[in-house]
Every structure is written in C-alpha cells, then in structure tokens.
Write a structure and sequence with these properties.
Radius of gyration: 18 Å
Oligomer: single chain
Order of helices and strands: EEEHHEHH
Largest sheet: 2 strands, parallel
Strand order of the largest sheet: 1-4
Structural class: alpha+beta
Number of helices: 4
Length: 150
C-alpha cells in the first residue's frame, strides 16, 4: 500500500450530483442525462425521468455523505485535500477548511475572471476551456499555499 508523502494531494471539483451516464446497448455508446432533457425525444427514457424527479433529495444527501467520507478518510490517513464546487447548483451543507472559495464555484469565479481580466476562460455551455482550467488551477495552488495546505 502506498503511504502518502508530502507531495501527495487530493483535489476534488464537486459537480452536480445528478450528472449521470449509462451505457446504451442498442446504440453501443454512452448516454448522458443531458440527452434526455434535449428536444430529441428519441433518447428519452421514462424510468430515468422518474429517477430524476423522485431522487433529487436522496442524491444530494449521498453527495454530502461522500464529502464527509472523503474528508474523513483523508484526515485519518494524513492526506492533503482541497476541494471546490465546480458548478453553481451544488449543495454545500458542510463547510470544510479545505474548501476553496466557500459557497462560490469555479464556473462563477471564471465568469468574473473573464470580465476582470478580459480573457476567455469558458467554452460554450459554461465549461472551462484550457485557459480556464489552467487559471483556476493556479488560483487553487495559490490558495492552498496561503492556507498552508501545500
């Protein structure tokens, strides 16, 4: 078993707990929940719609449990961890000292940085482009140094 050394760090960008993918045997490809919300009803699956409708609270709770579990495992094993919300619709019930930007999220931070620095950090749909990933990684690194996580 690998024991953590001073250079190991876990970095988690929490995404929406309802983002789901599954294998479609008929199409021989991965399907994503965004497909069923599109205008193309060909990919609509009633059971998945029902799952989204009825499981929101349960999925949010499972995400919060995952956050607690991961933080506990890292703390017990002396593994450095930093984490952040990637999107604006992620429940943040627990406040950890290793949580970058608190209730803010990467998507909103990069929107503000795009305006402030007059550089494009987001691709279509609000996902960070390569410049956005690099910029946010630098922000995380600086923050982790100031917090003495690194």
């Amino acid at each position: 078993m690998h024991s953590p050394d001073d250079d190991d760090i876990v970095c988690i960008g929490w995404t929406n707990h309802l983002r789901t993918s599954w294998w479609n045997d008929e199409e021989f490809r991965w399907m994503h929940d965004g497909f069923i919300r599109s205008k193309d009803e060909k990919y609509f699956h009633a059971s998945f719609k029902e799952w989204i409708t009825l499981s929101y609270g349960r999925c949010a709770q499972a995400t919060n449990h995952a956050k607690l579990f991961i933080n506990s495992v890292c703390q017990v094993n002396n593994i450095k961890i930093i984490q952040f919300n990637a999107l604006d619709n992620i429940p943040t019930q627990y406040k950890f000292p290793n949580y970058h930007q608190g209730d803010q999220n990467m998507q909103d931070v990069l929107r503000k940085e795009t305006i402030n620095l007059e550089k494009n950090f987001l691709a279509l749909g609000g996902h960070p482009n390569e410049a956005g990933h690099k910029h946010y990684a630098k922000m995380l690194h600086c923050w982790a140094e100031v917090k003495k996580i690194l």
